[in-house]
Amino acid sequence: MKISKIAKTPAKPKIIWLNTLVFAITFIVAVLGLPVYCYFYDYNLATIIMFLLATAFCGMSITAGYHRLWSHRAYETNIIIRFIFAVGGAFAIQNSALHWCSDHRVHHRHVDDNDIDPYSAKKGFWYSHIGWMLREYQAHRYHDYKNVKDLQRDPIVRWQHKYYLALVLITNFGFPLLTGIITGSIIGSFLLIGFVRLVVSHHVTFFINSLAHLWGTQPYSNKNTARDNPLVALLTYGEGYHNFHHAFEFDYRNAIKWWQFDPTKWLIKSLSYVGLAKNLKKCPEVRIARSIAAQQLNKTQDRLSSLSLPDKEELIEKLQNEYELLLIKMSDFYRIKKARLDTAKGLVIDNIDLYGQYNELKKCWFEQQKSWQTFIHQYA
Ligand SMILES: [Zn+2]
Ligand SMILES: [Zn+2]
Predict the structure, then answer these.
(1) How far is the CA of 100 from the centre of ligand 1 (A)?
(2) What is the pLDDT of residues 290-337, one digit of tens each?
(3) Are 299 and 202 part of one and the same domain?
């Protein structure tokens, strides 16, 4: 008997028809139904405003609730806000918070590992965007919630998980119906707030797993595929600063500069101003600065190594010296900054001239940064 030498490609897991049909039908109805409806009827302003509010409600229940609150415990909030996020998450039809967070924690822990990361971007755009939900790729660990035991202690998470299907049906029929009754356009409301809103919130979240791992820059780390992309951030309520997020996942922010678009961070911060959120976790500035510098060092070293320059060895040595000097000035500055803050808070009573030292060290740090930037930009 002849044994075939050709290795058989493993059969693909079974299709999950429920997911496939939900994604396909909602997409087709939204894409075909909306232009047809707009051709024959007009949308009133109230329906459009309700659509925008419903879309943002779904999106931010995922980003501020499922993601930063529950998956990463980046802050704490009270039961009412958690209830609102749980309802919004069911409205977004993205599985229960418990299940979503379990997948997401696996994603962070085993990012880019094609065998374990549930939506590994290394398997391509389609797989990380939606393909991973269309077949039984995760069947072996579908009900394994070992990594979210802390969340099982949250009564809201338990309640939402138990009544998830009922909540999906109530929100997805209830909100469009209610809006339709108020605005006098039931069909228009079901189309826009039912279907279009769902498709938009689905794909916006899916972009975080696909685009945010494939398109953009890596200012903080290149240990995984996560990327920063302001355009993706614009679509995803700030989650597009994904390189920062994977580097400092417990930080409640994804964007750290004031001008970067991160409405999820603004929402959490605003909640804290009115006493509805507390213990907002932030990575120390010095750690962030160190990561940026290390990443710049790696990139410049790689670039220099690839060039054929007669004085390459000396340049690499100079780069290393500049880097070490940068780290010294950086830690001096951040140390005095912390001392100044502690003194201002009354935590430490110090008689030394903190203000004078602070200004001096800040100047040194800025000067060294300038020298470092000038050096590395020659080989960018
Ligand atoms: Zn990711
Ligand atoms: Zn995350």
Answers:
(1) 13
(2) 999 999 999 998 888 888 878 888 888 899 999 999 999 999 999 988
(3) no
Structure tokens at 272: 């804290």
> Could you tell me if residue 239 is inside a domain?
yes
Instruction: Please tell me the distance from the alpha carbon of residue 203 to that of residue 5, in angstroms, as a whole number.
Output: 42
Chosen domain end from 278, 313, 331: 278
CA–centroid distance, 23 to ligand 1, in Å, is 22
Does 9 map to a domain?
no
**What's the gap in Å between 310 CA and the centre of ligand 2?**
45
CA of 202 to the centre of ligand 2 (A): 17
Does 141 lie in the same domain as 231?
A: yes
User: For residue 164, how far is its CA from the centre of ligand 1 (angstroms)?
Assistant: 25
* One domain for residues 209 and 188: yes
- Give the DSSP letter of residue 76: E
Smallest-distance ligand from the CA of 224? 1
Domain count, the chain: 2
Alpha helices in 163-226 (DSSP H): 164-183, 186-189, 197-209
Average pLDDT (158-169) is: 98
pLDDT score of 375:
87
The whole-angstrom separation of Cα 160 and Cα 141 is 20
Domain around 78: 17-278
Give residue 356 CA to ligand 1 midpoint distance, Å.
43
pLDDT at 359: 87
Above 70 in pLDDT, residue 352?
Answer: no
* 267 shares a domain with 364: no
CB atoms within 10 A of CB 322: 20
* CA separation for the pair 328, 333 (Å, rounded): 9
Same structural domain for residues 187 and 314?
A: no
267/325 same-domain check: no
The answer on pLDDT for 1 being more than 80 is: no
